Amino acid sequence: MTVAARLSPQPWMTAPESxxxxxxxxxxxxxxxxxxxxxxxAWLGRPVKDIDIATHAPPERVMELLEAAGIRVIPxxxxxxxVTALCGGKPYEITTLRRDVExxxxxxxxxxxxxxxxxxxxxxxxxxxxxxxPDGAMFDPFGGLADLAAGHVRFVGEARRRIEEDVLRLLRFxxxxxxxxxxxxxxxxxxACRDLAPRLPxxxxxxxxxxxxxxxTAPCAASVWRLMMGQGIMVHxxxxxxxxxxxxxxxxxERDLGLTPDPTRRLAAVLDSNRPxxxxxxxxxxxxxxxxxxLLALVEPPVVVAPADDRxxxxxxxxxxxxxxxxxxxxxxxAAIHDGPLDLGTLRKALSVADDLPDxxxxxxxxxxLELGVxxxxxxxxxxxxVEAWWIAEDFQPxxxxxxxxxxxxxxxxxxxxx
Length: 419
What we know:
Elements: E1 5-6, H1 11-14, H2 16-26, E2 32-35, H3 37-44, E3 52-55, H4 59-68, E4 72-77, E5 82-87, E6 90-96, E7 98-104, E8 107-112, H5 116-120, E9 131-132, E10 137-139, H6 144-150, H7 159-165, H8 168-180, H9 187-196, H10 205-216, H11 221-230, H12 244-257, H13 263-270, H14 275-284, H15 289-299, H16 311-321, H17 324-337, H18 344-352, H19 366-371, H20 378-393, H21 400-414
């Protein structure tokens, strides 16, 4: 395979930990390269997250070489040729070159090989089949660099066959189109996705959640979600999630405010449903309890808030919500529902109210009422609630002494005696 291009030295390529790994492998004659996402994103100048390495050496030999160099190795997937090296506190996944002997869904029966092209042919997309040596020599067996330059998300080989090998690749196609694609999506891939969409329910909710949540963080998530709806994809996954206009407005608000995309918040925006629909979506995606509860609160808010509300009303809403993050999310969703020009200054001012939460705590508790002589029982809770209602109506301004004075008066009023 000839060198297709050269990648300028990257910090993660020249880091002492990376060099130590490659030196250890080279000491035993093992050819090794960086592969996958780190190469793709580095070529585009995007942040690199995980660093993956491939080598023709069998996994047992990889472990032997690394351990001889004093590098800790974890046999995370020996049967599939994968080990994890911990070097300088950083994890590196190292996988032996493989070729598929038989594929069945997510899994495949593989054999180790020393052929880099055979291994690259197992990748789903051309842009994921790139590899490079520590000195930056890039190898591109399937035209991934040209596809990256054109924003063309394309399968390695026949699209239908690749999806039939693992239906999750159908969702990965749309996820990568959302993050890397430009212009019209690949026609062959779209046709295969349409035809094989009925197989999506065979996937686990966890795997679907992983792909959809990554898709939802993309700047153009709304347009790709709309594309999936038009291709008959979403009806097999989340038929309740069809409000792409609101999702688009939320994304614009997040962008204008410089906020980090949040997939749960964006899922709530696209859900055109009520609590039962949100519960179905949470179950389908196997959301965690925290994610489910947050989604439900965003779909059916505990209180109604609007950015244009005055500060007193917003503080009351914040107190009832009791969670600064949820309060902010409710305001952002409300802004996305807003029809017409949005005043970002008003929204920023409303969001700043969340900083008041630590101060919005009733200055007295039930034990204070007992010390005042209020009899144990329902009268304690009832009195506390009445004091709280008065304190809220006074915009949380009365201090402890004022709340205690109000509490002294309430039992007298309740028993018919004047204060």
